[in-house]
Amino acid sequence: MFNLLFTKKPSVDENTRQWIFDTFAWAVEHFNIQVFQEETKLVLPTNEFYSGRVGSVTEMAQNIFEHTVEYASMQNWPLKLVEPQLLKSIEFPSLIIQNALRGKDSKIEFSESNHQVIQFTFNPNQINQPQDLIASYVQQLATILVMQQKILPPGGKDFLPQAIDVLSCVMGFGVIFANTAYQFKGGCGSCFNPKANRQASLSENDTVYVLALFCLLKSQNPKSFKQHLKGHLRKTFGHAYSELSLMSQKSEIPLSLMITT
Predict the structure, then answer these.
(1) Which domain holds residue 122?
(2) How many domains does the chain have?
(3) In the chain, which residues have pLDDT < 50?
């Protein structure tokens, strides 16, 4: 009886956990498992990952964009960042993928000669909240990948927004996505700017769980990054990571995920 009394509540409910497992496997399988194994790293919101000096809002947006594209292993994609007022509304072009979808060996070409680049833009309100800016870029990159592959995630199209957040974490941006999943609205009114926040589709708790799963599968030591998580997330992460580690020891992690390591 006392063991039951002091048993911790699971980090996520059973249905959510299974969806996360299935969607993580979907993301790894369809968006280049080799890149996940060999190139993907856990990206942190630090000067080590986002270095460089800038002299303007546009330069800062460009600098963050270039680093983010590289960490997403989409450096060979024909992408261009433009200022918001210069963004043209066009249909997503048809692409020819050679060698691989992502990574150093990928080669991306347009099937029609009238297309030369895929345009991106940025939210100027996010310049003072760089983690939200990074996350917004990654959501756009992940959306492009899903549009290109045309393969729906577990649960179908109704779960696409949440699956894009999972894919973003699989690409290595789980710490940043966890930190930006929820924005506290308290304090002085001038401190909160809803226009600067990225649009999160996966809950904060579920995002932390995906991050913990990423770290388990990538053998990422939590001590190397936990200080970069928001304070209130560290305990949540520790619980999720311990839970998943125990499941792994009991061989309760699906084989489709374990083969990614």
Answers:
(1) 8-258
(2) 1
(3) 1-6, 185-190, 192
